């Protein structure tokens, strides 16, 4: 049965989607079957894998409002054994659709119940917010991975995310665990990045991955070509870092 992991942080631009795409692709390289589920209305996980997401009508939105089953919304990608349920801007209206709806926090969990045994990992790319979409993701997941940019405001607002995780644990999903904290956009040449990394490791202890994701131009370029980094620049430092992360996660499983 697949392990469901949300990749979350209410801040934007901290490497959530980059991590979702590249971790998924590298887990496949390790022999795993992976589903990437995009629950961010920006739809960047789909476009980062070469899909024209704004023209799609089989997305996370249709699944959450009950028009499609999760299995009907699954799409193959060019990466063998990597499937995706994409999203697009339609998902931004979900808050209105859910007004007054009973048990709306469990819509994603219920939808995934029928397909989770088909995958080794289901990775959920969360939006940069702490609303109903992120809560649905956390209620459906066994664990949550936090991506943290190694810059000045990295820890600002993190207490709010931890409160939401605690709320979900106490009210809806008591088995939700912290999968790990991933340091992203790391530049070892700067004192600031090293200080932030030290602060995060002191706070989260062994929950911080040994692997860090460097600031890397190729990682930024790859989505515009619709490819994960291990296809776009397979010998580069970005590809090596996500390969290392995938190996670390599988090794801890």
Entry summary:
The chain is α/β, with parallel strands linked by helices and 253 residues long. It is built from 12 helices and 8 strands.
Named CATH topology: Rossmann fold
Shape: globular
| C-alpha end-to-end distance | 13 Å
Q: Please write the CATH class name.
A: Alpha Beta
* Number of domain units: 1
The whole-number mean of residue pLDDT values reads 93
Q: Main beta sheet: strand number and arrangement? A: 8 strands, mixed
Sequence stretches where pLDDT stays below 50 over 5 or more residues: none
Beta strands, count: 8
Topology:
Elements: E1 3-8, H1 16-29, E2 34-38, H2 44-47, H3 60-64, H4 70-73, E3 75-76, E4 82-85, H5 94-97, H6 107-112, E5 121-125, H7 132-140, E6 143-149, H8 158-171, E7 177-186, H9 191-204, E8 208-214, H10 217-221, H11 229-232, H12 237-252
Parallel strand pairs: 1-5, 1-6, 2-4, 2-5, 6-7, 7-8
Antiparallel strand pairs: 3-4
Helix pairs in contact: 1-12
